[in-house]
Amino acid sequence: MKKLKQLLMTVLVFILTFAGLPVVSADTTTYTIQLTGTTTGHTYEVYHIFSGTLDASNTLTNIEWGPGVTGAGRTHFGDASEKAASLNGKQNDSAEAKAFAQELNQYLSGSGVTTVKSQQGTTTISGLKPGYYLIKDSRGSLDNRSGQAYTRFMLQVAKDTTVAVKADVPTLTKQVQANGSQNYTAATEYRIGQNIPFQITATLPSNYAEFPQYVFTIKDTIPAGMTYNNDARVYLKEGGTEKDISTFFPISYTGNVITITAGDLKGNQEVTASSKIVVRYTSSLNNYPIMGGVGNPNIASLTYSNDPNGNNSSTTETPETKANVYTYQLTVNKVKENQAALAGAGFTLYKKINNQYTEIKKFEAGSNSRFDFMGLDSGDYKLVESTVPVGYNAMKDVEFTISGTIDSTGALTNLTATSATATFDSNVNTGVITLKVVNKRGALLPNTGGIGTTILYLIGTSLVLGAGVLFIIKKRADSR
Description:
The structure is a single chain. The protein is 12% helix and 42% strand. With 480 residues, it is mostly beta strands. The strands form 6 sheets. Strands 9, 10, 12, 14, 15, 16 and 19 form a 7-stranded antiparallel β-sheet that branches. Strands 11, 13, 17, 18, 20, 21 and 22 form a 7-stranded mixed β-sheet that branches. Strands 2, 3, 4, 6 and 7 form a 5-stranded antiparallel β-sheet that branches. A hairpin with a 5-residue loop joins strand 2 and strand 3. The longest helix is centred in the C-terminal third of the chain and has 29 residues, at 451-479. Residues 1-26 and 444-458 have low confidence and may be disordered.
């Protein structure tokens, strides 16, 4: 049984109809098969199953077993002509052709095989004598090969022939909802505290119906700088219609990996080759996001069945797909006029949301002279020195705009902060925007009740007394 399962991995489909052929000598004339739609990475094995000669009416006669069939196979199937006649006129995907291909795969002989490496686009197999040939992927050649699937077809060759390869793979696309939009994209930016919607879309292979079972497992890795909100849902999408089928997909979250698996997708009769499986969930940036150009990538892959020939244990994965979330940091350095660090200040950062400034983060006064506002996105901000060090003048409020640029490939290419009253330095790689705040000592009036107030009182009293003396002297002088 184990051997049978291994042999069933790579069988291809038969074309079993005889075409009109010129009268040629089977001993000297050879033919060519061109496989279209091939991709690199396949190793095709070509087995000569039936051989014969061509008569004047372009009919293959004297059919015998070819060298590609073992002695045990010839005994098992019986007379070659009778077996070929039972398959005459059957289509590529007929049940009879598939059943014979799977059964035949147990009785293939290495003495009658030609091996060909696939090429991108078209693969040519030449030097073939008239007869039937089984063409299949080499057993095990695509096991665990990312983004690959076994091809299945079997054809009769009695002239030069072109055949379209029947192999297809699912696709998986991970996207994130653009900040401030309903559209999904490859990358965007968010700030700490926002819910971030993600979407995973899987398509199925065009030959999905040929699989007796279909393994379907999505794994999505959440980065350390994000927290999953445990709200994933799965939808079956047909055209513009969606249906929630989350109950069919057990969803687990272990460590930082969301696993969404159907076991055998064939268990849901509503799923077809044209269906899309869509997963949506949200997460949010926590206190430990990665700033700048690296971003916080969410990475997903799909494990799927890749052999339609009855080998249900053969699986592989799609290439990884990711959606990236960028975020930035404002660093405020508080210094004296001599550039020495200055403690005792407190700052509050506001962002303009719906045309109103909303507090994002506040640092109370303390021993720090550096203030890191982490997890910011593009937009309009205002920085306020909410606590001023004793003996220094307050900084005027700074209004500024952060702008991050993400290109069509999802890469963060530029980061700026601009203001009419302040100058910022920015680094797109680290995602850090820096502002230096210089505080100057102020010519401050003494506080009420201090020695300065006493001096003012004395001076004022002296002036009053002096004015009184002058008034008396002047009055006496007038009376004389």
